[in-house]
Design brief:
About 35% of the residues lie in helices and about 25% in strands. By secondary structure, it is an alpha/beta fold. A hairpin with a 2-residue loop joins strand 20 and strand 21. The two termini are about 40 Å apart.
């Protein structure tokens, strides 16, 4: 069974805190990054003891730089330097030293020269019961291809010298992975893993700042791993991530994401492989959104119910034991929960009015929960009344809940007293998509969460202009598009997405979009019921009419009803927004005519309109009591 490892450089904090987080996430081993040890106020023996106490083995010390192919006197100095590292390795209790290919301008090329250096190093390492792994850096001066590194190792021909393979250094420069299969598995001393988004950067900058965990980027890590497995390699799989965002996040959270990525990667790449490190259930299929639950207090419950009425919903049930109302329209179910003793109450006290839970209809609830547990998510349980249904759940974005229901299971008759109400309409058919806002540095984590548990696909990430900064937007959807979720994050602190985090005291659902077959009829009904819509400037409609050949009556109706429009090769898209409820969330109505996107060209206009309507943010003076005492919300 393979060991899962991670380099200490991948997480934030001091070395002792890093090791604690790594062990808590379930890793078997760790690579000690030299700079982490140098800055640690303790001995190598202290580090070795900490690792033993935490159940971690040290699979490598790294990196040893600029070794092979150096002229004298640097060559002699390198051998003296490496002897000191051997002493350190004995104290740490590790037998493997990682040497990365030389980047020094003083280095001399030549495979034979490098092989001679490694052969001599192998003799010295072997005398002390140690091993050395050689890795080709993608920006190495003479060796920047793992195939050349393997030729050097092969010519060195020493049992204590092996190759280290790194997915980033292989895939980022687009090297073929097929040649990996020709390397004997016992000559591979370590496999390091890192993914990355596709960026037009020099490979050094790309590596140092934008690496991410497998599955979070665009590199074909699965193909790389299948080539590695074909060699018979059975050593550690170790994450080595350089990422500015990861260094600013909690070490515990990043370590959990790292462990999750390895489980998902091996599950994906291990197709047909009998011995898996951690077998998990297949990804679940999401059929649709069964219901959305809103947490409010009693003072806001009536106001939210009024908005639901304006949107055409009807009161269809009351919970048998709690102050919870069911509001329905076509296949959409919304709950208003103002119970004093429930999860919704604790969510309200933390975040204020907002969406506290989303229920998903999945193909197999037990399998979904088993996979979620294997990926180290947090399950949730709360007391239910006599004869009431227990719905399995896990924690989601911002501490909210994800409930899971089988497609043929309903709790409406069991938990709710039905109410017959012939008011309302059926203009809205389904939940088109749900939009969640979060700190920018958490977006990769939640992408991994959703795509790891469920059979979902990522659309290309978009960059949207807010009047006060840029917002990154990532859509994730199931194959038949009955479930779409959009993740939004911004590094700018004053965008609407970032402001939501402050107002809501954390990540969560910022808006829900409902689909209509006739948005003009739907909006007419909403307006007659008193709905208040987001005001879109006339300049927008002047521009739309100049860009698209619209029927004049349609263009006029769009302008009168604040409806936005987009068109692409797949079809047409109409959308309209309500004003924000309690300055926290809002609703969107969309109509699709073959169009598969989310109206991204309209997003800057919508954000500007919402910015104009938002309550001004009054910042306290730097030396005021308010500033000294106010709670700072990260993100």
């Amino acid at each position: 069974m393979m060991k899962y490892s991670i380099a200490t450089v991948s997480v934030s904090g001091t070395l002792d805190k890093k090791l604690q987080a790594i062990a808590a996430a379930g890793f078997d081993a760790v690579e000690i990054f030299e700079s982490d040890f140098i800055s640690f106020d303790g001995s190598a023996s202290d580090v070795a003891k900490m690792c033993r106490d935490l159940g971690l083995s040290i699979c490598a010390l790294q990196p040893f730089r600029d070794f092979e192919g150096m002229p004298e006197p640097q060559r002699a100095q390198n051998f003296r330097r490496v002897e000191r590292k051997f002493d350190l390795m004995h104290k740490l209790g590790t037998d493997l030293l990682l040497i990365c290919s030389n980047v020094s301008p003083a280095s001399l090329g030549g495979i034979d020269r490098a092989a001679d250096d490694l052969r001599e190093l192998g003799e010295r390492a072997s005398a002390q019961g140690l091993r050395v792994g050689f890795e080709a850096l993608a920006w190495g001066r003479h060796v920047n291809d793992y195939r050349d590194a393997w030729q050097i190792v092969r010519r060195a021909n020493h049992k204590s010298i092996g190759i280290i393979l790194d997915s980033f250094h292989t895939l980022a420069p687009s090297l073929p992975v097929s040649a990996i299969g020709s390397i004997p598995g016992d000559r591979i001393f370590l496999v390091q893993l890192a993914d990355a988004p596709q960026l037009d950067l020099d490979v050094l900058s790309w590596s140092r700042h934008f690496r991410c965990f497998p599955g979070q980027g665009n590199l074909d890590i699965s193909d790389f791993m299948q080539s590695v497995f074909a060699t018979g390699y059975s050593g550690p799989l170790s994450l080595e991530i350089f990422n500015d965002q990861f260094r600013s996040r909690s070490a515990k959270e990043v370590a959990i994401d790292g462990m999750r990525s390895l489980v998902l990667l091996e599950d994906q790449a291990n197709i047909g492989r009998k011995k898996k490190t951690k077998a998990i259930s297949p990804r679940s299929e999401i059929r649709d959104v069964a219901f959305v639950e809103f947490a409010v207090d009693k003072n806001h419950a009536g106001d939210l119910a009024t908005i639901f009425l304006q949107l055409g919903f009807r009161l269809s049930g009351r919970h048998r034991s709690k102050p919870v109302e069911r509001w329905s329209q076509s296949a959409i179910n919304l709950l208003i929960n103002c119970s004093e003793e429930s999860f919704a109450r604790s969510h309200y006290l933390t975040h204020g009015s907002g969406i506290c839970a989303i229920a998903l209809s999945v193909d197999d609830v037990d399998r979904t929960m088993a996979r979620a547990k294997a990926l180290d998510t947090t399950s949730f349980h709360q007391p239910v009344g006599t004869d009431e249904m227990k719905i399995p759940a896990i924690r989601g974005v911002g501490g909210s809940l994800l409930y899971f229901l089988d497609p043929d299971t309903s709790n409406w008759d069991q938990d709710f007293v039905p109410i017959v109400d012939n008011t309302g309409s059926n203009h809205l058919s389904t939940i088109d998509h749900i939009s969640q806002s979060m700190p920018y540095e958490q977006m990769l984590s939640w992408q991994q969460f959703y795509t790891g548990i469920f059979h979902l696909q990522r659309s290309p990430q978009l960059e949207i202009a807010d009047p006060l900064g840029l917002v990154q937007s990532q859509a994730i959807l199931n194959p038949d598009r009955t479930f779409r979720i959009v993740l939004n994050g911004s590094a700018a602190t004053r965008t609407m997405s970032a402001r939501f985090l402050t107002e809501f005291f954390g990540a969560g659902v910022q808006h829900i979009a409902f689909e209509s077959d006739d948005i003009f009829e739907t909006v007419a009904g909403m307006r007659s019921a008193g709905a208040s819509l987001l005001k879109i400037p006339d300049n927008y409609y002047d521009d739309v009419e100049s860009r698209f050949d619209l029927d004049p009556a349609v263009a006029t109706s769009m302008r009168e009803n604040q409806i936005l429009y987009d068109r692409d090769d797949t079809g047409e898209f109409f959308q309209v927004y309500t004003r924000a409820f309690d300055e926290r969330f809002f609703f969107e109505i969309v109509q699709r005519r073959g169009y598969q996107g989310f109206g991204a060209p309209n997003a800057p206009v919508r954000l500007a309109a919402q910015t104009r309507e938002a309550r001004p943010v009054t910042m306290p003076k730097p030396d005021s009591d308010e500033n000294r005492n106010r709670k700072v919300i990260k993100g």
